[in-house]
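Data deposition worksheet. Section B asks for the primary sequence of the deposited chain exactly as it was used as input, without tags or linkers unless they were present during the calculation. Section C holds the resulting structure in token form. Section D is free text for depositor observations; keep each observation to a single sentence. Incomplete worksheets are returned to the depositor.
Section A, Depositor: J.P.
Section B:
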Amino acid sequence: MSTENSLVYPQVGGYNETFKMSVVAEVLSGQITQTAALKKYGIGGHTTISKWITKYGRNKELKKITKVSMPNDKLKIKELKTRIHQLETVLADLQLENKSLNKVIEIAEREYKISIKKNSGPKLFLNSSKKTEE
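Section C:
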């Protein structure tokens, strides 16, 4: 009999937190699947490990991460949010300016019957080479 199978694990509600957290760590690290862990450790219930992951795994780690902060972090976050707002305002202004200028060009082209917008690169190149040949 292998030592792994000789370990006796409680079947109902008797698992200690250390055991649960070690199983969760194994599963989250990819060392073992939930199904394999159920069989390996003789854990009853097909959703038991999923519940442990919710309690001890990803969610708990996320809570720990959000609680960790340095005194300057709040100030830095506030400064970054202010900077984002400033950049969004500048972007909106530039987009409005761009639309306005395009509208002015469109009106000028229509009223004066001229082409103001630049042609694409290859067309300019072809036109300029014809002029030099003449």
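Section D:
The chain has a mean pLDDT of 77.
The helical segments are 3-6, 17-29, 34-41, 48-56, 58-67, 71-112, 121-133.
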